[in-house]
Design brief:
The chain is α/β, with parallel strands linked by helices and about 325 residues long. Helices cover about 35% and strands about 15% of the residues. Pfam families: 2-Hacid_dh, 2-Hacid_dh_C.
Amino acid sequence: MPRVAVTFPYFDFFPDLRAELSARYPGTKFPDHRRVLEGQELIDFLQGYDTAVIGVQRYEEAVLKACPELKVISLCSAGVDHIDPALLRKYGIRMWWQAGINRVSVSELAVSYMVLALRRVHEFSSILRAGQWRGPIGFGTDLRGKTVGVHGVGHIGKAVIELLQGYKVHILASDRLDVSAFTDGFDNVELVSAEEMWARSDVLTIHLSKNATTIGLYDGAVLDQLKPGAVIVNCARGGMFDENALAERLESGRIAAAAFDVYAMEPANGNRLLDMPTFFGSPHIGATTRESWGAMLRSGIHGIEHAYEPEPGVYPFD
Ligand SMILES: NC(=O)C1=CN([C@@H]2O[C@H](COP(=O)(O)OP(=O)(O)OC[C@H]3O[C@@H](n4cnc5c(N)ncnc54)[C@H](O)[C@@H]3O)[C@@H](O)[C@H]2O)C=CC1
Ligand SMILES: O=C(O)C(=O)COP(=O)(O)O
């Protein structure tokens, strides 16, 4: 029987799923505070356990080294960039993970951010709070009829393209894989290079995975290839943008507006973007709906038995 330790707090919000996990694996240990465990606290918590159910949290080598009994990680997230596959191999740890599990909540957020950014709701909201009315700002723009670049056509990028159909936009999709089997199904989607997407898009939405090819991809030189006055939405991962370069271009108006859910450093205290009037953001809430979190926790529970199977159903890295 696996000895299970949960090292992040969200089961507190789903008592039925917490009870299900405990019933399947008696003795399952949960943290007693609403924090993600890290460092020495994480190491101490894991002693004597061979199975960890985890969220978007780093398991550094120091943790794996100090927890030799750990054999299985069951992941409650869609992104896997916080786990180093080489380390898992080195320490003989199996991992379960379910791709695309929160595509609905992230795609809904991204499309709504496009509309909110184009309509300048964050600016109008600020002047409303300041006791003014709408005069000083002027106009926003409609999404309908615009060209939307979708960078990354995986689970979430595809869901965004599907959601955008109702808005009657033209879509420029770009991915390093051949995603034509999907995009060919739409008469308003063109599959293009990143450069063409950057040059032609009024709105650009990022749905790339974070990897060696995307970290730092959006530097000043790339931002300068964007259509002047473009709007950027990033609900994928922090670290893909040079945030200072973006702030400079928001300041000059070269980029009209940006809306981010994710940041190079999280928490994002002191991030310069948060002071920009044409920027609005949220604290990595793309998957923070009851539906997505319920699904992720369920996947974390069921992933334990899958990870222990001789031929596990899903392995992200093999
Ligand atoms: N804000 C939030 O709370 C959440 C954010 N995410 C993030 O959203 C992003 C997308 O997630 P999914 O669609 O589930 O991932 P996915 O793996 O299904 O799709 C990612 C796509 O990016 C493409 N890609 C990677 N590197 C590329 C490159 N250099 N050039 C062009 N294309 C490239 C891949 O080929 C793939 O099609 C990930 O970064 C994930 O971590 C996921 C869930 C919640
Ligand atoms: O599923 C993912 O990849 C996420 O980014 C979810 O983020 P969260 O665990 O809600 O902070």
